[in-house]
Amino acid sequence: MITNTSLEYKGDLYPSKIVSYEHEGDSVFFNTDNKVILKVTILRDSLIRFRFTTKGYFSNDFSYAIDKTQLHGYNFLEVTQEESYFQIRTSKVICKIQKADLRLSVYDLNNFLILEDELGFHWEESYEYGGNIVKMSKFSKDGECYYGLGDKATQMNLKGKRVENFATDQYAYQKDQEPLYKVVPFYIGLHNKQAYGIFFDNTFRTFFDFCQERRNITSFWAEGGEMNYYFVYGPQMQDVVTTYTDLTGKPELPPLWVLGYHQCKWSYYPESKVKEITSKFRELQIPCDAIYLDIDYMDGFRCFTWNKNYFPDPKKMVSDLAEDGFKTVVIIDPGIKIDKDYWVYKEGLEKDYFCKRADGPYMKGKVWPGECNFPDYTNPVVREWWAGLFKELISDIGVKGVWNDMNEPAVMEVPNKTFPMDVRHVYDGNPCSHRKAHNIYGTQMARATYHGVKRFAYPKRPFVITRSAYSGAQRYTSSWTGDNVATWEHLWIANIQVQRMSISGMGFTGSDIGGFAEQPTGELYARWIQLGVFHPFCRTHSSGDHGNQEPWAFDEEVINITRKFVSLRYQLLPYLYTMFWQYIEEGVPMLKPLVYYDQDDTQTHYRNDEFIFGNQILVCPILEPNAVGRRMYIPRGEWYNYWTNELFIGGREIWVDTKFDEIPVFVKAGAIIPKYPVQQYVGELEFDELTLDVYYKNGKENSAVYEDAQDGYDYKKGRYSFLSLRSIGKEKELIIQLHKEGKYVTPYTKYKINLIGLPFKVSEIEIDNEKIEFDKINFEQNKFLIVDKEFNELHIVGE
User: Fold this and answer.
1) pLDDT 10s digits, 354-411
2) Which of 89, 199, 369, 523 is 20 to 30 Å from the Cα of 252, by its Cα?
């Protein structure tokens, strides 16, 4: 689009020479003689914003993506002028801006070229709509790889791909199909062991081309708005992702039950069917924390109503389910049925809260209830009204979570599947058309929903899930990957999608386990469960049009595999909760593709399948039928096979045998993995013992366990427990050091320490320099010991 001949004839325009510049605080303005202005803002030494305008002045600076609570500041900033360029220097990077045409390049402090404009910023006047199509092209370095961009159904490494960002309801999408439900215009570049990031904060339809059109050129462009992008310097991918996540924001901690297993279908009704499903989970002893109600729970698909034929007493039903450990989650869509007797519609109409066409009438579209109007969630007054609508659902009836669907926004029976582009939006005081607001509509709906659920769930924590999202949506909501299909290809897609979302700032994501459309075989469902339990959000969901998809819809073997892996997830809940804590505190993604884990190893650059769950567990799903094993790459270091405890040296590809009830799972040597006993739901059991699986390593390794009351906000007042653990392995000794922070007192009093891979026979055990008799700690030689949790250092000495 940027360079081909037909479009060049349309008249691409370019900045001319710089005629003046001003340095004001953290920003430097460069003015050209054809009225282009480049504003360079140093937010951090490694985070620089580049903002261009072609009209001689900037419009109001507004973004839904940026987390405005983040404080920015740099350590060093120097602006100098050379003969042909201006130079901006921070303590991390050097940026050079050419005087002749505003083309820019970024170097590290050793003058190594990280990023360089090719054509740089240019634009095409859009006479159809007014405004500009804004464009940017940059050189791609030899061997450069590209990652990120959120929810894309394609290879992890985007080299050679072109992608489109326009939130779209893509039922039963396929591999490489564009566009999908979410818009995350952020990518990570990696070359010569240096990583950087680009976040193109533009809510119009955007495109990214990673050397598809031209071999050594990458480019991005938008159908309107500004050329406004952020450059993030690493040099480690970890630094890039953390900085971007800080920039666009992080969620609050979910209640622990949200990290359990969830069951959903379109649709479970009537009430007797819901209770039949939940009872079967308890009968089969398959842990489950949440049951979902799809659109059929409503009266004629009217949001915030109940079908009293199906659910005569929803408050009692929700209470009954809660007594059995099930939290109820309900769907809410944006389409409000046009019905003069429907209270939500009447309120929206009276208060003028619905989206309008350019010539005045309300935008009307068909979705599940029939003809609907749609709230303008870009209006803060409408968001406040929408939040208040959740009072009955949350406060009175006791629903624990809300699921926003169809919020791309999706509209039926129209060619483009969404609103007409002339629909007007308030856009928080920056009025615009749907061309600009489309990609953030779903996020603003989720934002309004979040504030409503949070208000009425207090003092408990809210839970919201959304299908459509733009960068920054993670501050309000979790997400899933939309209407996938029960195929092996989609299992492969789901694995990559959730990894990609994790390094794109939206870590709290999962897929519809088993596939939403069509019907999985028992084998496919089992393999999907085995992957899904290692995703941050874990939910089976399916379309009722294609048969049943509960674990017991298949044979006894699949039931047993489901029980085994869901139970494993419940054992790993403290590990998963700790992952989430590190995500919200430090911006560390919960899932880490191998390239993120070890970018210096070029063997990781094109790996799709393997990923690191948290910091210390390596997972590789089985992605094809009839497999008795698979080849996989073990990253550098030492890793234990979780099932056999066999030790492997990494940095190589190996064959791993697997049974039907296993997938390859490895644990990093030196890791200390916390485990709870298996519960049928979070909070079912009181237990006096936390299990710590200690994997011996000759060397040092740090681990952590975060715990709190599992819900509520006391953790924000310091009532949490953060346990820093260190294992130090020597030839004839293993030392475990423990340091606790926080005021929360965990209910258990003991640790059961499982010893894995110990290379010596134990002759002596010391706790805090005191020798302990074996029988006092239930010691079983080279297997486990049980100790009081109040210790600082444990020595296990060999003969």
Assistant:
1) 999 999 999 999 999 999 999 999 999 999 999 999 999 999 999 999 999 999 999 9
2) 199
- Strands of 370-373's sheet in order across: 336-337, 370-373, 365-367
Q: Which residue has the tokens 């940095």?
A: 651
Q: What is the spatial distance between Cα 332 and Cα 210, in angstroms, rounded to a whole number?
A: 37
User: Which region, left, alpha or beta, applies to residue 391 given φ > 0 means left and ψ of -120 to 50 means alpha?
Assistant: alpha
Q: Is the pLDDT assigned to residue 133 strictly greater than 70?
A: yes
Q: Which residues of 202-233 are buried (b: 16+ CB within 10 A; e: fewer)?
A: bbbbbbbbbbbeeeebbbbbbbbbbbbbbbbb
3-state helix, strand, coil in the chain (%, to 5): 25, 35, 45
Backbone angles phi, psi at 239, to 5 degrees: -70, -40
| Alpha helices per DSSP H over 260-376 | 271-284, 314-323, 343-350
CATH code for the domain defined by 686-798: 2.60.40.1180
Q: Which residues does 361 contact at the CB level (< 8 Å), separation at least 6?
A: none
Beta-bridge mates of residue 784: 754, 780
SS (H, E, C) 192-231: CCEEEEEEECCCCCEEEEECCCCCCEEEEEECCCCEEEEE
The catalytic site residues sit at 405, 408, 483
Residue (of 310, 418, 415) closest to 365 by Cα position: 418
The Cα 228–Cα 433 span in angstroms is: 19
- Two tokens at 563? 């029980």
Cα separation, 565 vs 567, whole angstroms: 5
788: pLDDT confidence band, cut at 50, 70 and 90?
very high
Task: List C-alpha distances in Å: 730 to 701, 727, 734.
Answer: 12, 10, 6
* Residue 10, pLDDT score: 60
Phi, psi of 440 (to 5 degrees): -110, 0
How far apart CA 205 and CA 238 sit, in angstroms, is 28
Give the pairing type, strands 217-222 and 206-210: antiparallel
508 Cα distance to chain centroid = 4
pLDDT digits (tens, 9 = 90+) for 558-611: 999 999 999 999 999 999 999 999 999 999 999 999 999 999 999 999 999 999
Residue ranges with strand state E in 561-634: 591-593, 611-613, 617-619, 629-634
Name the 3-class secondary structure at 119.
strand
* Lookup: tokens for 88: 């901006």
Task: Please check whether residue 742 is in contact with residue 716, taking contact to mean a CB–CB distance below 8 angstroms.
Answer: no
Q: Which residues contact 13 (CB under 8 A, 6 or more apart)?
A: 34, 54, 122, 123, 124, 125
Cα angle, residue 730 at apex, residues 725 and 731 outer, rounded to 5°:
150
CA angle 259/262/265 to nearest 5° reads 155
Predicted TM-score (pTM) of this structure: 0.97
DSSP line for 457-523: HTTSPP-EEES-EETTGGGT-EEE--S-BSSHHHHHHHHHHHHHHHTTT--SEE-EET-SBS---HH
Q: Where are the domains of the chain?
A: 12-141+194-234, 686-798
pLDDT at 744 over 70: yes
- DSSP-based three-state secondary structure for 528: helix
Q: Which residues pair with 32 in a beta bridge?
A: 18
**Is 12-141+194-234 a domain of CATH 1.10.3210.10?**
no
Alpha carbons 521 and 140: distance in angstroms, whole number = 43
- Supply the angle between the helices 573-586 and 556-571 in degrees, to the nearest 10: 50
For residue 213, the 8-state DSSP code is S
Q: Which amino acid is at 516?
A: F
**Residue 396 DSSP label:** I
In the chain, the N- to C-terminal Cα span, in Å, equals 71
* Total residue length of the chain: 799
Is residue 7 predicted with pLDDT exceeding 50?
no
CA distance 188 to 482: 24
Q: Is 466 left (phi over 0), alpha (psi -120 to 50) or beta?
A: beta
